[in-house]
Amino acid sequence: MPDYGSAGPSFLSCSDSRTLKEKLLNEGLAELVIELLKPPTKLTSTQLAKLAELIAEVAKCELGRKPLSDPTVLSTLLELLSDKDNQVVLQSCRALGNICYDN
């Protein structure tokens, strides 16, 4: 796996990857996220943090916000704000903020 350092994966920046995000969303990314978050989830804390981070990155662009505004995604992210793992809380907060931005 590539090392992105502290900057994170730049291929998900809004200005450089609109096409990539469109492709991911057209290929069912939102539906997959919704399915993975449906209770009871079997994801570990690390997996939840990474999934929330993915949601946060995709929701940076307008085209990613609407499909990720699903009630299952939002309610699960809200629940994750009280998780014991700080990364889960941080990434869930980022995801919610990015989904709500300009909405």
From TrEMBL:
It holds the Pfam family Arm. This is Rap1 GTPase-GDP dissociation stimulator 1-like. Transmembrane segments: none annotated. The keyword Mitochondrion applies. InterPro entries: ARM-like (IPR011989), ARM-type_fold (IPR016024), Armadillo (IPR000225), RAP1GDS1 (IPR040144). Signal peptide: none annotated. The keyword Glycoprotein does not apply. Keywords: Cytoplasm, Endoplasmic reticulum, Mitochondrion. It is found in: Cytoplasm, Cytosol; Endoplasmic reticulum; Mitochondrion. It comes from the Eukaryota.
